[in-house]
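Contributing new records

If you add data, match the layout below exactly. Sequence lines come first and carry their own label; structure lines follow with theirs. Keep one chain per record. Anything else will be rejected by the validation script.
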Amino acid sequence: MSPALAHSFHRSRRSFVGRDGWSYPVQASAGPVRPARGALAAPSPLVPVAVTVGRPTNSGSGGLTSCNPGYVPGVNEFLSDVSDLRRKAREHIDQGPVTDSYGADRERVIAVLNEALATELVCVLRYKRHFYMAEGLDSGPVAAEFAQHATEEQGHADMIAARIVQLQGEPDFNPETLTNRSHAEYVPGKDLLDMVKEDLVAERVAISSYGEIVQWLGNGDVTTRRMLEDILAVEEEHADDLLTFLKVLNLSG
C-alpha cells in the first residue's frame, strides 16, 4: 500500500481517507485468531491484512462502491464509448482533425486566425524594412535584432497558416487587404529610435490581442490556444528586447 493510501487507515474500519481527500472502501481478511482465555497458544507471526481498494468516493460517507482494481479516477467519467468514437471518425473522415469533440466556432476561429496571420505578415514586412534602413553607430545590434524578429514572425505566420488549413479553412495572403486585417500597424519609422518605438508598440498590440484570443478560445480549441500561447510568449520576449534597446538609445541620445 502506498503512503498516500495508508494515511488514516485502520484495519477495523470499512474505509480510509487518503492524502488526496478521497474515501477508499476496503475489504480486509481476518487477522490472527485470539485464543480462548486461559489457553496457551504458540506464538504466531503477524498475519498481513489483505486490502482490496475499490472505486473511491468523495462523499465522505465511506460507503462501499463496486471494487475495481483497474479503476483510474477521472478517466471513465469523460471518455466516450470507443465504438461510438470509431463510428464518428469514419463518418466524417473528410474533416481531418476536426472531430465532434471540437468545441469552438470553427468558422469564427478561422476568421480570427486570418487576422492573426495578417498581423504576423505585417510585422515581418515592418521588421524587414527596419533591418535594411537601420543606420548609425548603434545600429548593428539593433538591426540584427530586427532580422531575428522578422524570421520569428515569419515562423509564427507559417504556424498560423498551417493551423487554418487543419481547420479546413484557407489562409488569406491577399496583399490588398493585409494592413486592414492586421491588428498591428505598418509604420516605416523616421530613424532608429523611432523604429524601435514603433516595433515595441506593435508587439504590445500583438500581446494584448493574442492574450484576448487565448482567453476567448478557452478549452473550445486547445490546439489553437496552445499555439497562440507559444507565439504570445515569443512576442513578450520581443517586447522585452525592444524595451532594452529603447532604454539604451534614449540614454545615448
